[in-house]
Amino acid sequence: MRNKPFVIVDVETTGSNPLLDRIIEIALIRTDGTGEFSSLVNPGRTLPQFISTLTGINDHDLSDASSFDEIAPEVADLLEGAVFVAHNARFDYAIVRNEFKRLGISISAPTLCTVRLSRRLYPKFRKHGLDSIIERNGFSVDQRHRALDDARVVEAFLEIAREEKGEDAYSAAFAQLLKTPSIPSGVAEKMVKDLPAAPGRDKAEAFGHTVSG
Description:
Layout: E1 6-13, E2 23-30, E3 36-40, H1 49-55, H2 59-63, H3 68-79, E4 83-86, H4 89-102, E5 111-113, H5 114-121, H6 130-137, H7 147-179, H8 189-193, H9 201-207
Parallel strand pairs: 1-4, 4-5
Antiparallel strand pairs: 1-2, 2-3
């Protein structure tokens, strides 16, 4: 696990239900420098007004955007063999996994939540949301609640946490969190237990290789 690359993932969605809502924007950054991707995603439905207000994304922006099935191969390639890292990873992982599931594709990856990492490394702080991390570190963000900008905040947080806490403490926190993964939001425990020992077979048929953690 220690030698696996990390992929920082951020999604903007039509709502907060990972089983029912859809991705409208996704960004992925591999921290080994081998790839980065971001795209608007046409969810095939009208956006709620509060989502447009929050993100600045509207139906017109998404009308010519790719559907998730069109970008799925590139997303899968970036996730291949990596640790899925996100702020509130339970949600991001669940909604990405469900988008693939709608295509008949199974993905599985170890996940690490940077909210939990922040709590472990910075216990003196009461809040660990992305806005709080931005404020306490003085990060500059062009567009908050946009996938790539938010993913870059997470990337910057990881870099500064390593510098401030030192490699040993930083790596130890990662290792401990990866040993105690949380079940993704909206995923029944039975579903996790029933996962195949060799994940990604459906993707092998669809894209020619597998996605596995």
